[in-house]
Amino acid sequence: GQQLNQSPQSMFIQEGEDVSMNCTSSSIFNTWLWYKQEPGEGPVLLIALYKAGELTSNGRLTAQFGITRKDSFLNISASIPSDVGIYFCAGVATGANNLFFGTGTRLTVIP
Amino acid sequence: SQTIHQWPATLVQPVGSPLSLECTVEGTSNPNLYWYRQAAGRGLQLLFYSVGIGQISSEVPQNLSASRPQDRQFILSSKKLLLSDSGFYLCAWSVRPQDSPLHFGNGTRLTVT
Fold first, then answer.
1. Facing residues of B10 across strands?
2. Does B47 touch chain A (CB under 8 A)?
3. Distance (Å, rounded) from C-alpha B73 to C-alpha B51?
4. What is the mean pLDDT of residues A55-67?
5. Do A45 and B102 make contact, defined as CB atoms within 8 angstroms?
6. Is A52 touching B (CB cutoff 8 A)?
7. Does the beta carbon of A85 lie under 8 angstroms from any beta carbon of chain B?
8. pLDDT in tens, A87-110
9. Closest by alpha carbon to B10, among B113, B112, B110?
10. How far apart are CA A72 and CA A76, in angstroms?
11. What's the pLDDT score for residue A68?
């Protein structure tokens, strides 16, 4: 299957700091999605991106679909304790019917 | 609005026993349906997806199978569970993944003992 490299694997930050994580693929993607997962629950959609170069915000979250269509990043500004969780990127390759996921970034926010 | 239901929430099964996990979607027609597995602390691995009744695509060879007997019902099965089948199983649906996101159920925690 498709390989999605997500980094960093984990982050420990102080409350109030900004966070940045990114995802790269080995092939061209038509869709990039960012999800957050909390323990024992399914992933919840944060932001969906469908056009190369697209920059979309959802509150304190901002994500961009890279121009090369092989990468995407997610920024979280002014982190708060409830931002704790695992963040996953996911993408749909050209002509595909399924979504492939990155390995996740585990975020810990220290109050 | 659309909702997805997945059950049971947790399951403990002995090695060699059969498995049946069920997922149903409400509020939409002809969805794409997916089964993912997540090992502890790891990412999501796509197991099966279905674009219509009776149409199943398998992403990885394994001890599991999937069926879609009705438009909004997706079942994950095994005839004989292995220890390595333990994990967190997630069902998801989408309209068209190219231009609409996947929405996940709350998952089933399976422990094979």
1. B109
2. no
3. 12
4. 97
5. yes
6. no
7. no
8. 999 998 877 777 888 999 999 999
9. B110
10. 14
11. 93
